[in-house]
# Entry
Amino acid sequence: MSVAVLIPTYRRNDALSDAVRSVFAQTRLPDEIVIVDNDPQAGARAAVEQLSDSAPVRLSYVHEPNPGVSNARNTGFAHTSARFIAQLDDDETASPHWLASLLDASETLDAPVVFGPVIAQLPDPLTRGVRAAYTQRLYSRLGSSDTQLIDKPHGCGNALFDREALDLPSPVFDHAANEIGGEDDMLFQTLQAQGVRFGWAAQADVFEHVQAPRLSWGKLLQRSFAYGQGPTQTCAQSPRTWAGVAFWMSVGAAQMLVFGACAPVARLISAQAAAECLDKAAQGLGKLIWFEALSPRLYGANA
# Structure
């Protein structure tokens, strides 16, 4: 059974080093770690060369000079022939049992795609208040405390793929998502239509280290807006279903009005309640204003 850990990176060398070292410390080591440097200037090369001296497994550096989240992930998939590919983002660190937990869950559940929890870690000055609660809500992915099959897939950060059990499209990730993201949503929608089983590995924790500038209110609300655009944009894709577009636009309008009005009152209850209202209001606006020309460019050269 061959296993690779894939880490796409874009100008986060310090965070990348932490991510790679967390893979070095796994109780179940992979056969290979593939780092895809998506910086046109190949800025991560020196950092990877330094890490290679202490690598307990094969450490592969691949340069993908064309910026874009789909480009980076596709290059990583193409570079390795491993059966299992575990994805870790360059701003995440994995708990020591992370990879073993993903693999165990895949086998136990007979699930070709398995996800694990993501726990946001904030800088010390930002430990409380509405912005902290909003950041935790946006960047954390918490689920059941039990390892089990799930109906709804999550994102690629902290996910395991069994390629032998999957009929993956070519390319795996749609190039249309290079700058706006959502490439994982598109892929998992395709796999879901094929009847693929999704699993949840409750003990496969990773920690997402959220740093500036992603902590500004502008960036946080922009990300919620982009998330909200997803359902309407999916219906607007070929084959387009205008009934679905109209439905999600209606949901978005109601969501924006109701939760936007509730946010000031929710602040009197708790920071978490206010953060939930703001997040849902911003996502509602995204459902309503779903046009791709207005999609935030969160990745690639325009990030």
Remarks:
- The longest helix spans residues 242-269.
- The mean pLDDT is 92.
